[in-house]
Amino acid sequence: MENVAEKACELKKTFFKVFGPGAAPETVFAPGRVNLIGEHTDYNGGFVLPCALSYGTLALGRKRSDRKIRMYSHNVTHLGILESSLDDLKAYESDHFTGYVKGVIWAAEEAGFVCDTGMDILIWGDVPNGSGLSSSAALEVSVGLLIKTLFSFEEMTQPQIALLSQKAENDFMGMQCGIMDQFISAMGKEGHALLLNTGTLTYEHIPLVLEGAEIVIINSCVKHSLVGSAYNDRRNECETALDRIRKAMQDGTLAFPASGKLPEGLCELTPDEFEDAAAVLKDEILYARAKHAVYENDRAIRAAEALSQGNKELFGTLMKESHASLRDLYEVSCAEMDVLTDIANSKEYVLGARMTGGGFGGCSVNLIKEGYEEQFRKEVGEEYTAKTGKKPLFYACVPGDGARVIKQ
Ligand code: ADP
Ligand code: MG
Fold this sequence. Notes:
By secondary structure, the protein is α+β, with helices and mostly antiparallel strands. Helices cover 40% and strands 21% of the residues.
């Protein structure tokens, strides 16, 4: 969003048109994100390295005197106002984006943050939906911060908003995502990437500066459909692999890792410890999935070090390795995304390109040498269209702050 304050002001007028005159609404903004590296590690207790974007979701809301929840998305105006109630916080097949809104209100209530009146909510966002830049997390986190603001939930912290949002997506929407998307949307910092340990939720903001290089995001314009499908399968496969490793450690067939503790997630194992454990998996698919998680975690740690040291070549190499692993071991890429990253990685001015987000389409993230952006857009754009018939979209990567209240 180029100018959040301006857009918020415009949406305030829309709010009054949609919901009628009355008290001024509160306004909040939550960003989408791009993950630089550390993909599918966030539900395996591993490290991720995302940054929040300037693209995001604005949510405007005011309390009602009854218990109705009235929701309107200015992105899908044809749906009109969709109505629910605090007394009916359940998921229905017919839910649209309203599932995410109700889900967050429900998750907050479960945690003791009870909204005592209904509300009118208007949302609008410029994160492309279903493209791996996490419009769903931006929506959830914006609703979390909105209800905190409206109902003065002083004790609700930003990390807690992230956890409530994840709970909404997991338990209300049935999408078993990890914590990365919601956490970075709540906790992003301008000009920085966030190295997050998803096992402990400890984190460090690292300045996102690689001298002489820049990051470009490309939308393959292939839409993923992840809910309840391949994503949840991968999660189950990782859980089964972990389970077998833990059992072998418990019955003495396998040595404990250096930590001396049973691992709570696959990413607690180093690559060496994992290779020692591999024999107990007894299944090629489980081995491949677990191998991705363990080595991807190692790559995320090394990439964060490379970022701190300004080593753009190493960062790029790790991105390439990450993509190969997601394609071959985790099998969450798709033909178009492989074409897109292959084209990018074939350019001498590209340091590294990989898919980002859950997979099966969506966006790639590219580290390119400074001064080549125009050439990159032209060459990669043309070659991708020639090979796939699809027209890619390019986005700037301007690392922004996490969710915040917009005063107006
Ligand atoms: P991603 O998070 O990668 O963008 P998801 O499938 O997880 O993809 O989430 C996309 C869904 O989020 C959309 O189908 C829609 O239901 C919802 N959504 C997000 N932002 C908006 C918005 N501004 N208006 C309406 N729905 C939205
Ligand atoms: Mg999502």
